[in-house]
Amino acid sequence: MTEGSDDIQALIAMMARLPGLGPRSARRIVLQLIRKRGQNMTQMAQLLGRVAQNSRECAVCGNITDREVCGICTDPERATGEICVVQDVADLWALERGQAFRGRYHVLGGTLSALDDIGPDDLGIPALLTRVGDERISEVILALNATVDGQTTAHYIADALEGAAVKVTGLAQGVPIGGELDYLDDGTISAALRARRSL
Amino acid sequence: MTEGSDDIQALIAMMARLPGLGPRSARRIVLQLIRKRGQNMTQMAQLLGRVAQNSRECAVCGNITDREVCGICTDPERATGEICVVQDVADLWALERGQAFRGRYHVLGGTLSALDDIGPDDLGIPALLTRVGDERISEVILALNATVDGQTTAHYIADALEGAAVKVTGLAQGVPIGGELDYLDDGTISAALRARRSL
C-alpha distances in angstroms, B96 versus A51, A61, A64, A81, B102? Predict the structure, then answer.
């Protein structure tokens, strides 16, 4: 009976398993919630319940939404003929925050991995190929992580789209905005040098 | 409509205000919860709701509990005649985890502070003095932080208890277990030297 009540202990234990949290930070958060319980703890409980109830994957692109098909897939202004392929919903959200892309998305939900036995069918790659035909797509942008797994998956998709009349592109690699050369790894520096552009 | 739905955005914004979290970690946590929503998101919502509904301060000591008077205050085995005075419920929980103290507690909920206009009445110090008389207390242990505010409060309480027939003690100061002298501040080293003990 250390932490107040069984419910409080169960809540702390559950919070402690969330990414980036541990027992200490979970205790701190739960205590803060209880201290301000009049303000927003009940509201947070209701929100959590509603999100748990209503969230689902968009039937078309795999984005998280509370409808059958997400707002991006139903927005006619975003039928630009471009599909941006991302590994994860978090990547989609990051791209949306950047507001640089006005087309539609396709969330793979992972990368190809022989080790974890993840093949093209597990990632919805057949669905992507179908969409490219059905939605009259002119360009597929592979916005995958610049890791070995991400690039393997990008190459696989590029190969699979070889026959289709569609442009396949990837994100530029180079020096990040605000990046200092001294702190960058060798691979990034050589990539940026190889892809140098005239000013 | 970046992050899925209005509810998801509201949940992220609310989580981002919790101690130790920010927008990035809140997004990561909410996404993880949604991914595993079948497992425990609903359960967490219910727990949060129940804790918000049932939590209150113990009428005697100020501990967080789901009853009128907390389990420590009602446990007859803990009527040892000792009261441990702590600043915060988190400190009480920390002492309980250590399992070194078997008496009862008194949570101040803060420290005296002229700057923030917090006086003895705001901290329930009169209630503490009443308890010392009513519960036949023989020792008051001031387990307050070793900060200026904490020690000011400790001195104030020690003064207020001067007339009562009660022993007033404070936590020992010295080298923490596992502490290396080289990394300790000068104040701690001199305190540990002054309070040296024969072996």
Answer: 36, 50, 42, 62, 9
Residue A84 per-residue DSSP state: E
Outline where DSSP puts E strands in B48-166.
Answer: 56-57, 64-65, 82-86, 104-107, 139-142
Question: What pLDDT tens digit does each residue of chain A (199 aa) get?
Answer: 467 788 899 999 999 999 999 999 999 999 999 988 877 888 899 999 999 989 999 999 999 998 999 999 999 999 999 999 999 999 999 999 888 899 999 999 989 988 888 888 888 899 999 999 898 899 999 999 988 899 999 999 999 998 888 999 999 888 888 888 888 888 888 888 888 888 8
Helix (H) or strand (E) holding A130: helix A125-134
Q: What domains, with CATH codes, occur in chain A?
A: 6-54 (1.10.8), 78-170 (3.40.1360.10)
Q: Do A2 and B34 touch (CB under 8 A)?
A: no
Q: Which amino acid is at B173?
A: Q
Q: Which residues of A touch B25 (CB under 8 A)?
A: 19-20
Q: Would the CB atoms of A47 and B90 count as touching at under 8 Å?
A: no
- Give the C-alpha separation, A171 to A154, whole Å: 11
Would the CB atoms of A47 and B10 count as touching at under 8 Å?
Answer: yes
- Asked if B13 is an interface residue toward chain A (Cβ–Cβ < 8 A), one would say no
- Contacts of A133 by beta carbon, 8 Å cutoff, 6+ apart: A164
